[in-house]
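Risk register update: the risk of archive-format incompatibility is retired. Evidence:
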Amino acid sequence: MSQQITQYECISCPMSGCLGIAPVDQEIFDDYSACMEGYLLAHDLIEHVNGHEALGGVGDELEACTGIWLTRGVLHDIQRGKQHSIYSPEESVAHEVRACFEYWWGRGCAFDMPVPKPAPTIFFDQELREILTISRKLIVEERDSQWDDDDDGRPSNSHIAEYLLAAKHFMRSGWHKHKARWPDNDYQANNQFWAIAEATDAFCKTVEIEGQKFDLKWGDGEALMYETDEEDIYEYEDEED
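Archived output:
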């Protein structure tokens, strides 16, 4: 993938109230999560396959679940440099699919895009079945721990089945989109992911004021982030003092 530049800025995260980084033209919705670690920024850029304009939608997140497995999971590289995970790559992705169910159920069982009907994938469907089997177990366990049988808000087994069927289609779609974007091999996406994560981590963790601007130059397995317009921002801050 050729070199390109993506622009970011420091914002106050709607979810946590802390400072983090987001693309400059990102729509900031109520449950948007600004990036406070480099691997989260890399996830949005590499493992999401529909651009940052689609972030926050359940369908987009499910397609990105496949991106996680293809970029990091298939290489057993989910948490590089962190404590070894007790979960397999399939279990790690299944927890993400379970989290997406919460958004789907909480948003009235609505997806942000039509459910696709992609072709099966020869190299992923076995793992996909395992992921969805684990996801169903996690969803049912959480439902049974949070709702009584007669609660109006309790998801039924048919609701869960409806969601998992759609999840299968979205995750297959994610496989096709990811392979179209990274046709050479999974190492290419993995190398680019971790180059971005390492280049941006310190910036994500040390932003100081809303409005700070950053450029991320990335591609060909390399990444470099640098601050822009620093002088103007700090002059404005001085005037406020």
